């Protein structure tokens, strides 16, 4: 293990346009995860303190006067999420101190800054709800069980065993579980509602609707569930389920061409107030017509995306985030009575002085006739008179999607002179269940062909230089990068794999035992290593190691439990034996998601150098932001 130092190697001449510093694109002063206090007078947020995220807070009056706010934590490994307790006297922290996704909940007292843990170490915990009716308590999932905890002391007041749910359905007013979602052996989902101490099934959906069925929450008292589901429709819609009859009695939001991706609830009535649809740009629709003028005042820009983040207990103040892909997201606080935005906080204030790139939505037909969507982000100074070196940046999941938002990595690639292509290949969410399910058992198959067809689309339009294309991604995106190098080696000049699987059989077999639902879903959608080992092997990059001839950069976190480091090391050993040029970076203290800014900056520096070497773009000199990075 070594501590990263600055490189002294010579580097190519920089482009005429000075690159935006990495330290700006991934700013140290970034404020994220803002939360509004119950009385609407204060904000809490996460900000980098040294190299990790830590909690900070301030009254809005102090921020408006230019005050910096008060640091509340300096915890090892940092903080992942911050929420206000309903008592207004504590902040609730989600932490992953060891980077192994065994998260714990902690509380910090606003008055004294003292921190105490609410859940035990080594058992993954998740904050589920707080309530103004029971301000001294929280409801948490701890090792899958439901627990009421006293916020001031951490005392466990009640425990409810888990009857096999991977998601609980919560009445947020009473802090009581009213139901849950249970994964079936066949890949379908049962929606269960509580009757006394039993949990009868009130709705069942098959595998084809499972990925587009998720909890929203329970109405007060549990008579109705508000669910997102594609059952009975092509896209995920927001419905009201009567738990006594098992019938969907109302459709609150739906669209024929896009899934509902998020819901915001009225804190008074508990009913859905707004829903968002996942189109090329996220579109938020107010379900409460009386609140439409307030939403417009919060975000009058029709080109921007509005995300509701919460409000004060009396509903007089709202906190929202207004996003555009070509500038810093901005948090805004609306005073509903006067209709004024009373405070604004730029998430990344350092970006204000720089010209950023604008992602452009595009679509094309795959070779078997599916409409596939994506984003093309050109360098801001590009004239488009000639094809550009290109990075195909593949999203993870794969049951997720790329969106139109500020993305530091996309901006970094565009700023360094590359066309950045992002593709929502089949299996991606947001486009309905047929498109999502078209990705079943198509890892390294038609999912990869969609990426290949996207490259063909970009080269046919002379956007991309066919001789200078890299493929890059993390998690599933890292797997896709390895597949690109192994299955279509003549298409790409180089590949960058960040924590990607190399052998489908071993990555599925190593899923943690307590992630039962994830394992069942992977077997159904990818393949079963026990009953069809040959199929899993032929879809694995390691099976075609002899076909890899392009250079690779491979990086992994040593504490990753989703994709074990053995996946990358098996690939690296095979590359070494065959003399294929590669770089391998192991970050021993990181998991699947990087926590240390120094480590992340070091990795980005290596990515820049690697791409510049093989595609010819600009690489910024290593800077002090990666000082202290630990890499083996």
From TrEMBL:
One Pfam family recorded for the sequence: Peptidase_S9
Species of provenance: Sphaerisporangium rufum
Segments forming a coiled coil: none
The molecule here is called Peptidase S9
* Recorded GO MF terms: serine-type endopeptidase activity
Leader sequence range is none
Where in the numbering of this chain does the Peptidase S9 prolyl oligopeptidase catalytic domain appear?
404-616
What Gene Ontology biological process does one annotation of this record name? Answer: proteolysis
* Source taxonomy: Bacteria, Bacillati, Actinomycetota, Actinomycetes, Streptosporangiales
Do you know which InterPro entries this protein is assigned to?
6-blade_b-propeller_TolB-like, AB_hydrolase_fold, Peptidase_S9_cat
């Amino acid at each position: 293990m070594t501590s990263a130092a600055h490189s002294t190697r010579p580097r190519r001449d920089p482009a005429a346009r000075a690159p935006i510093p990495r330290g700006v694109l991934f700013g140290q002063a970034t404020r994220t995860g803002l939360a509004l206090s119950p009385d609407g007078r204060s904000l809490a947020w996460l900000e980098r303190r040294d190299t990790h995220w830590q909690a900070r807070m301030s009254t809005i009056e102090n921020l408006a006067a230019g005050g910096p706010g008060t640091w509340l934590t300096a915890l090892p490994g940092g903080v992942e999420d911050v929420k206000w307790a309903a008592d207004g006297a504590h902040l609730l922290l989600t932490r992953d101190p060891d980077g192994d996704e065994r998260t714990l909940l902690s509380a910090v007292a606003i008055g004294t800054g003292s921190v105490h843990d609410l859940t035990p170490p080594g058992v993954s915990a998740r904050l589920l709800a707080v309530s103004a009716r029971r301000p001294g308590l929280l409801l948490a999932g701890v090792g899958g069980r439901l627990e009421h905890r006293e916020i001031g002391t951490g005392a466990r007041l009640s425990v409810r065993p888990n009857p096999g749910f991977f998601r609980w359905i919560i009445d947020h007013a009473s802090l009581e579980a009213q139901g849950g979602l249970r994964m079936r052996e066949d890949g379908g989902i049962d929606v269960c509602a509580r009757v006394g101490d039993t949990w009868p099934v009130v709705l069942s959906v098959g595998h084809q609707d499972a990925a587009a069925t998720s909890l929203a929450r329970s109405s007060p008292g549990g008579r109705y569930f508000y669910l997102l589901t594609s059952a009975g429709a092509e896209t995920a819609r927001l419905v009201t389920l009567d738990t006594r009859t098992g019938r969907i009695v109302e459709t609150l939001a739906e669209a024929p061409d896009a899934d509902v991706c998020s819901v915001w609830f009225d804190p008074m009535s508990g009913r859905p107030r707004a829903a968002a649809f996942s189109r090329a740009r996220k579109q938020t629709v107010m379900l409460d017509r009386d609140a439409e003028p307030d939403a417009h005042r919060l975000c009058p820009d029709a080109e921007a995306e509005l995300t509701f983040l919460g409000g004060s207990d009396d509903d007089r103040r709202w906190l929202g985030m207004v996003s555009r892909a070509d500038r810093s997201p901005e948090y805004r606080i609306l005073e509903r009575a006067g209709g004024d935005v009373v405070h604004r906080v730029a998430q990344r204030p350092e970006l204000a002085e720089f010209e950023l790139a604008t992602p452009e939505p595009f679509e094309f037909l795959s070779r078997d006739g599916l409409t596939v969507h994506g984003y093309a982000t050109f360098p801001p100074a590009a004239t488009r008179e000639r094809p550009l070196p290109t990075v195909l940046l593949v999203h993870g999941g794969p049951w997720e999607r790329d969106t139109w938002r500020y993305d530091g990595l996309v901006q970094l690639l565009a700023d360094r002179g590359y066309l950045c292509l992002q593709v929502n290949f089949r299996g991606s969410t947001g486009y309905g269940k047929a498109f999502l399910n078209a990705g079943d058992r198509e890892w390294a198959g038609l999912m990869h062909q969609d990426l290949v067809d996207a490259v063909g689309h970009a080269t046919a339009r002379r956007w991309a230089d066919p001789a200078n294309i890299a493929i890059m991604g993390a998690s599933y995106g890292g797997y896709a990068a390895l597949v690109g190098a192994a299955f279509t080696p003549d298409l790409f000049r180089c590949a960058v794999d960040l924590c990607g699987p190399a052998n489908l059989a071993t990555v599925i077999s190593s899923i943690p035992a307590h992630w039962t639902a994830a394992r069942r879903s992977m077997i159904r959608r990818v393949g079963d290593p026990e009953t069809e080992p040959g199929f899993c092997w032929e879809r694995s990059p390691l099976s075609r190691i002899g076909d890899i001839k392009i250079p690779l950069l491979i990086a992994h976190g040593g504490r990753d439990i989703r994709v074990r480091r053995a996946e990358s090391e098996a690939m690296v050993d095979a590359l070494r034996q065959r003399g294929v040029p590669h770089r391998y970076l192991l970050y021993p203290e990181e998991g699947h998601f990087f926590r240390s800014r120094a480590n992340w900056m070091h990795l980005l520096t290596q990515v820049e150098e690697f791409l510049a070497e093989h595609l010819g773009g600009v690489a910024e000199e290593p800077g002090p932001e990666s000082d202290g990075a630990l890499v083996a």
